[in-house]
Amino acid sequence: MLPPSSNFDLAAWYLSVPTDDDGNGRADSIYEAELNSGYGNSNYFYTGEDGGMVFRCPIAGFKTSTNTSYTRTELRGMLRRGDTSISTQGVNKNNWVFSSAPIAAREAAGGVDGVLRATLAVNHVTTTGDSGQTGRVIVGQIHANDDEPLRLYYRKLPDNSKGSIYIAHEIKGGDDTWYEMIGSRSSSASNPEDGIALNEIFSYEIKVEGNTLIVTIFREGKDDVIQMVDMSESGYDTEDQYMYFKAGVYNQNNSGDDSDYVQATFYALENSHTEYED
Fold first, then answer.
1. % residues pLDDT > 90 (the chain)
2. How buried is residue 101: exposed, middle or buried, by Cβ count under 10 Å (0-12/13-18/19+)?
3. What 3-state DSSP class applies to 228?
4. Which residues is 178 bridged to in the sheet?
5. Alpha-carbon distance 3 to 13, whole Å?
6. Whole-model pTM?
């Protein structure tokens, strides 16, 4: 019966939910102080019966901006930890940069490089809509100013009993490069023998060291699955590019029934950076 912040330190996060209580036409943002002081929403963000932090997001709902195609219930890293004198955007103490960035950017940023670790289970994915969109959800991200160095997907097709894990690395101002880690991202993929079922607990680690991205999937009793990405030509090691982690559920279906939804329960969530003092 406790709110998520009673079980998780949410002082360095804010939450987007697909409601519009303030009437501005966009998804509501719950900033650090309110989020870490007992905020909960029985429809979208709450504590499950097992104590996990539940993120739920239907297809229908308000979006974070006009440039966004999908709804989300998702945390965004906020290294400022409630210090509203620091802007949410920019190379500043709220965001982090690669250690390959110029020294001026490293000194101005709130952190250098970063690691995001989570333990979770995906409980539900969409089953309606276009075949290219059903079953997709993003459960972790690295976001830059405008682009996304990393998106971590879970996808389970309606006829399969297990889901796949894959990632996308977006070149700054360019195209996505895809890497399949467990199973396939294909909309017609067969059931992945080594896939992850709904409600099966697994962990991920997203790590940046300079221009190297390392994503690892951990499962009890199974070998780790690791994917490395060379980002030296991706354009993020400049003086004006800043990063932030995201975690939760970012629904990747906008063609299904309004009430169809994605849901995941997180059991652990932590992020760390060098040169960061919380």
1. 96
2. buried
3. strand
4. 168
5. 15
6. 0.97
